[in-house]
Specification:
By secondary structure, the protein is of the alpha/beta class. The chain has one domain: Alpha-Beta Barrel (TIM Barrel), CATH 3.20.20. 42% of the residues lie in helices and 15% in strands. The chain contains 12 helices and 10 strands. An 8-stranded parallel β-barrel has the order 3-4-5-6-7-8-9-10, surrounded by 5 helices. Strands 1-2 form a two-stranded antiparallel sheet. Helix 6 links the parallel strand 6 and strand 7. Helix 2 runs parallel beside helix 11 and helix 3 packs parallel to helix 5. The protein starts with 13 loop residues before the first helix and ends with a helix.
């Protein structure tokens, strides 16, 4: 197997990196790892985090062959990017692809979203400065369903990204969002070539909406990032954060599935991620990991799968509790 362009002799162990599967990222020249690192957990968005554990998680991920990192200003109001900027000082730039975002900002509702050209230009400058990078590999418009309209994004936000791409400040342009229909609408309407889409919480044990749209996105030559295989914490051991929009019926169903897994000697998150890693036509699966133990757990599922007994548990909970509740 060929090593990716992100392999750095002296930083990586070739035998370890060769365990990772790398996929072509749409029509770009990038080869991205099947598992990628989501850095939302490098902030309090998903609960407690630690500086040292985040640093060790990043190093373990990179040295294991994971070469795609995703963050945003929204994650802790720049905290995630600040941590990454500190960590990157000790890491070869060529060993990773950095993806970040514009469009979502503060906790206050009236300041949360801003897709204007002025704010977008500010955010690009901020992201570069905070991360300590000369360029960003993938810049995404964050949660486009919250913009005044898709047309507004195309008229106001997108030209600033094109301007930044022409200057070499960013390499590739993408969009993120929860309604997959909004991503498709953007791709259909955009007059500018974009390179990727990030869909979150739409291909997991609770919701497989993304599957319906994958053929179209593939036909357009787009890189596909499937994020939040644990449905923003619903399928995790600790359960979702208070801000999670799921109703009580869904929360209860996930708790019953979680309890059943524990009673049968396994973890809901492990089974949920096994399902995610076996879905075809996904270039990379973006997983929030802020401890080296979480990185190791995900690598274990990715490489080793689950036992026959765990398969039986997975089949039971999907039929009884959690499969495609949305």
């Amino acid at each position: 197997m060929d090593l990716p362009n992100t392999f750095v002799s002296g930083f990586h162990d070739e035998s370890i990196v060769k365990k990772m599967k790398f996929n072509s990222f749409g029509n770009t020249a990038l080869k991205v790892s099947q598992l990628s690192l989501g850095a939302a957990g490098f902030s309090t968005l998903y609960g407690a985090y630690g500086y040292d554990s985040c640093k060790q998680a990043l190093l373990k991920a990179l040295k294991s062959g994971i070469n795609y990192i995703d963050s945003a200003y929204w994650y802790g109001q720049n905290v995630s990017q600040q941590l990454l900027g500190e960590f990157f000082k000790e890491i070869p730039r060529e060993s990773y692809y950095m993806a970040t975002k514009v469009g979502r900002y503060e906790l206050e509702k009236d300041k949360m979203f801003d897709f204007s050209a002025e704010k977008t230009r500010w955010c690009i400058e901020n992201n570069l400065k905070t991360l300590g990078l000369e360029y960003i590999d993938i810049l995404q418009i964050h949660d486009i369903e919250f913009a005044p309209s898709i047309d507004y994004v195309i008229k106001n936000t997108l030209p600033v990204l094109v301007e930044a791409r022409d200057k070499g400040l960013i390499k590739h342009i993408g969009v993120t969002g929860y309604p997959v229909s909004a991503l498709k609408e953007f791709v259909e309407k955009t007059p500018v070539k974009i390179d990727m889409i990030l869909s979150y919480a739409r291909l997991n044990l609770l919701d497989d909406t993304l599957k319906e749209y994958l053929p179209y996105f593939k036909e357009q030559g787009l890189g596909i990032v499937n994020a939040s295989g644990l449905a923003m914490g619903l399928l995790s051991e600790g359960g979702p954060q208070d801000w999670h929009p799921a109703d009580e019926n869904i929360r209860n169903a996930c708790k019953k599935a979680r309890d059943y897994c524990q009673e049968n000697g396994t973890q809901l998150s492990k089974l949920a991620m096994h399902y995610v890693y076996n879905q075809p036509n996904i270039d990379t699966n973006l997983v929030g990991m802020n401890t080296p133990e979480l990185v190791e757990a995900n690598l274990n599922v990715l490489y080793n799968g689950i036992t026959k007994e765990e398969e039986d548990v997975l089949n039971y909970i999907t039929k009884k509790y959690v499969c495609f509740l949305y």
